[in-house]
């Protein structure tokens, strides 16, 4: 009996690998085009780190006219959840990171290099496992889980490196006849890779992000095909990335230490290995301890969180690009009108260690992003969010024309107002412009300097009777508030007041504050002229009455 016969005994049906090599030809792309993928397990949860990876992958493939695809790694069937693929497809779609190939729904895919779901590629992996067995580079291992456990215990007691390697890899020493006999006897087995590596030798590797690193060679006879006939991650990724023409594996740096094994697998399979780029995770400061954002502890670890909170997709992406390349922030400042697609991301300049996630900063980016949007866009995004998350806001926005007027206040000018950082803030932000909300709200009227009831009444009444004119332009409108101030013994200019405070009761700004607070219940609002224009004289009068009778 020889290896070839053994391989045939194990996988009698498996196709020759040439079949697959021909079925998936080298991609015809321009030189330098990067092919990469996002390869999550369908656990139904997309971590913000996964989005970060996909954003980077999508960007560098676009920059080089390459291909970005979505592969589902579902070989660990214990971890799967129902509709797990749908959740991933949706998360990418929500952020407008659309793969060129791969899964597009729970069951459908597009592209010529599929199936893009590993559990549907069983036969392919078996062909390649067979190919390795034929060459004596892989073998069936009959050790039961209890035996493996026993080996581990012995190693632990003897304080030596754990694993199935060298003298511990006892199944690698069976003769081919013994192996065949055991199989014929119906013993159960898995397939292991036969490593010729030596732990005391080093390999040098250049990682696209981490730079030069060395590792000891891999000497473990790792499992390549499990008892359920499905491959392990290590083997599956090698086969898939080879057949799918991946040029760059961009993945989390928890995989960095597996590189020695992965390069060895590529080598033994006779293939050119892809480049590897290991991304540092996004970290969180937890009472002075830096740790990875955790699915269990941190709401913001889930991509769904951003949609639920209504943080604009673009803000999340801009923020993640800030983390990815420190040059991005300056670029964006210099090019506020350019989209992130126009930024040239340099993956080799990415930070080697994990950046801290900063929610304050993200919300600040959100403010800038929203301030740059047209009123129409703000309206569309706010109502889209409201439909899914806030029925009351949805109702408020029913009158589109009115809402657009509100969103238009101080928009489109050089320094647009930055007051909304996420869609879940819109309601609270515009509420006072709606009479129903305004009237139902428990009023506080936080008047500042001018606090006297009679004085306030006089300011409001005089203003409306003598000064306010709907048709005034902004300058006239403001001049009139100055006149009112003067008439009542307040300084017309803040400067004047500062020079001679004893001459005045207070200044025009304080008078404005009275108007503003009576009108909106707030001390801080966007442009009051525009607010008055939108409300109109009748509603202003009602609000002043309410304030007076308060
Ligand atoms: N399924 C692996 C993971 O989710 C993929 C790693 C890779 O991109 O190769 O970590």
Explain the overall architecture.
There is one protein chain. The protein has 550 residues and is an alpha/beta fold. It folds into four domains: 4-8 and 10-15 and 122-279, 3-Layer(aba) Sandwich (Rossmann fold); 291-371, Glutamyl-tRNA Synthetase, domain 2 (Orthogonal Bundle), CATH 1.10.1160; 375-430, no CATH class; 453-549, Arc Repressor Mutant, subunit A (Orthogonal Bundle). The protein has 23 helices and 13 strands. The protein has helices at 3-10, 17-23, 48-63, 84-94, 122-134, 145-157, 176-184, 233-243, 259-269, 303-309, 313-324, 327-334, 359-371, 375-389, 391-396, 400-408, 426-430, 435-440, 453-467, 474-487, 494-499, 508-520, 528-549; strands at residues 35-38, 67-70, 101-103, 109-110, 138-141, 190-193, 202-207, 211-216, 223-225, 248-252, 275-279, 283-286, 289-292. α22 packs across α23. The mean pLDDT is 95. It binds glutamic acid (GLU). Residues 39-41, 73, 233, 237, 249, 251-252, 255 line the site of glutamic acid.
By CATH, the architecture of the largest domain is named 3-Layer(aba) Sandwich
Query: Remind me, CATH topology of the largest domain?
Result: Rossmann fold
Distance between the termini: 100 Å
Q: Report the principal-axis shape.
A: elongated
Overall radius of gyration:
33 Å
Q: Give the CATH superfamily of the largest domain.
A: HUPs
Roughly what percent helix? 40-55%
The number of distinct structural domains comes to 4
Structural class: alpha/beta
Question: What ligand molecules are bound, each kind once?
Answer: glutamic acid
Portion of residues in beta strands equals 5-15%
Quaternary structure state of the chains depicted: single chain
How many helical stretches?
23
Strand order of the largest sheet: 1-2-3-4
For the biggest sheet, the summary is:
4 strands, mixed
Number of strands: 13
**Roughly what is the average pLDDT, rounded to an integer?**
95
Low-confidence stretches: none
| CATH class label of the largest domain | Alpha Beta
């Amino acid at each position: 009996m020889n290896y070839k016969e053994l391989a045939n005994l194990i996988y009698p049906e498996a196709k020759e690998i040439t079949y697959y090599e021909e079925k998936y030809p080298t991609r015809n792309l321009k030189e330098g085009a990067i092919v990469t993928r996002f390869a999550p397990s369908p656990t139904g949860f997309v971590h913000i780190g996964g989005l970060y990876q996909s954003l980077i992958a999508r960007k560098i493939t676009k920059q080089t006219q390459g291909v970005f695809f979505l592969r589902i790694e579902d070989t660990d069937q214990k971890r799967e959840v129902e509709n797990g693929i749908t959740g991933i497809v949706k998360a990418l779609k929500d952020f407008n990171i659309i793969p060129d190939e791969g899964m597009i729904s729970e069951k459908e895919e597009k592209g010529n290099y599929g199936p893009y779901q590993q559990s549907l590629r069983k036969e392919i992996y078996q062909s390649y496992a067979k190919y390795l067995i034929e060459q004596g580079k892989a073998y069936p291992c009959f050790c039961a889980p209890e035996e493996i456990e026993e080996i581990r215990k012995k190693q632990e007691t003897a304080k030596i490196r754990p694993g199935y390697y060298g003298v511990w890899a006892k199944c690698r020493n069976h003769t081919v006849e013994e192996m065949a006999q055991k199989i014929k006897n119906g013993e159960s087995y898995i397939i292991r890779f036969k490593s010729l590596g030596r732990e005391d030798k080093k390999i040098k590797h250049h990682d696209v992000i981490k730079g030069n690193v060395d590792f000891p060679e891999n000497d473990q006879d790792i499992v390549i095909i499990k008892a359920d006939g499905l491959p392990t991650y290590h083997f599956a990724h090698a086969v898939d990335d080879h057949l799918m023409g991946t040029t760059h594996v961009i993945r989390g740096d928890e995989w960095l230490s597996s590189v020695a094994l992965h390069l060895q697998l590529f080598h033994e399979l006779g293939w050119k290995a892809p480049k590897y780029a290991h991304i540092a995770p996004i970290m969180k400061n937890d009472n002075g301890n830096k740790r990875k954002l955790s699915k269990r502890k941190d709401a913001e670890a889930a991509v769904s969180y951003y949609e639920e909170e209504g943080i604009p997709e673009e803000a999340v992406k801009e923020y993640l690009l800030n983390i990815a390349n420190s040059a991005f922030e300056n670029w964006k400042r210099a090019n506020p009108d350019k989209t992130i697609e126009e930024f040239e991301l340099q993956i080799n300049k990415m930070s080697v260690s994990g950046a801290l996630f900063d929610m304050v900063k993200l919300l600040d980016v959100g403010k800038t992003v929203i301030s740059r949007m047209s009123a129409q866009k703000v309206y569309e995004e706010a109502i889209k969010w409201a439909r899914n998350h806030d029925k009351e806001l949805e109702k408020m926005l029913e009158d589109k024309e009115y809402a657009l007027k509100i969103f238009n206040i101080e928009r489109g000018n050089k320094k647009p107002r930055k007051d909304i950082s996420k869609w879940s803030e819109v309601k609270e932000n515009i509420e006072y412009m709606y009479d129903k909300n305004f009237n139902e709200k428990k009023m506080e009227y936080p008047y500042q300097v001018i606090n006297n009831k009679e004085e306030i009444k006089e300011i409001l009444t005089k203003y409306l009777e003598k000064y306010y004119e709907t048709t005034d332009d902004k300058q006239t409108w403001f001049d009139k508030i100055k006149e009112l101030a003067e008439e009542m013994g307040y300084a017309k200019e803040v400067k004047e007041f500062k020079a001679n405070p004893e001459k005045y009761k207070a200044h025009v700004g304080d008078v404005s504050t009275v108007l503003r607070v009576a009108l909106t219940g707030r001390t801080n609002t966007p442009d009051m002229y525009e607010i008055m224009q939108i409300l109109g004289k009748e509603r202003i009068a009602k609000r002043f009455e309410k304030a007076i009778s308060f």
